[in-house]
Each structure stands twice: as structure tokens, then as C-alpha cells.
Amino acid sequence: MEFEFLPLGKDTKRLSALRESDIYVYEDETILGYGAIFQQEIRALFVCPSARGEGVGKSILEFLLAKISGQAKLFVAKSNWPAIKFYQKVGFETTKEFIAEYNGTPVQAIEMVCSNKKC
């Protein structure tokens, strides 16, 4: 099922989660992406569309993993295959599937945990 992302100002749950997270920005003359972590959870990883495929996401993820003590985990929409493939390539595995709610819409989601020693 498709869903539409809300701007952060209208998404109080996601905004609250980001505010309690440590946020790191990747820039090279301009901002190309960012990542956010809270304890062992990667709460956000975003790369500007113009910078995708250039190693920015991998750099951000490696930086976040170096900041996490213990086993890293994240949650992703099951329909987000590009992200899932990216995380699997690094060593994340799906540990459970569940239905989450986003903006009043049920969304199939998965929890992924890093299963290799890099994490």
C-alpha cells in the first residue's frame, strides 16, 4: 500500500523521534544527506536523490554504525526495496515483519538487525 510522507512539521511522532536522536549531516559544499541514531537504533538515513549511487549513503551508514555500541537495528517500510537491498548488502537481516501506522494508513514494515561484525 502506498502512503504519502508528511512534512516533519505535520508529523509530530517522527519529529519527536528525531529530536531525541543524534543527527549527523553529510556535506561536500552542499548538504548531501543525513543520518540519525538513538541508542542502537538508526532512525533516519537520507541521501539527496542527486547524490545517490555515489557512496554517500554507505559513508553515512558506516559513520552511524561506528557511533552505535551493541547491535544496530532499524525499521523500514517493506515496500522500500532500494533501502532494504542497501541494508542487506552491508549485513542487516530482517528479524520481524509487522504492520505500522503512518498518517492513519497501515504500512507493512520490517525490523532489520545488523548480523555481521562490522556492526
From TrEMBL:
PROSITE patterns: GNAT. InterPro entries: Acyl_CoA_acyltransferase, GNAT_dom. CDD domains: NAT_SF. Residues 1-117 form the N-acetyltransferase domain. This is GNAT family N-acetyltransferase.
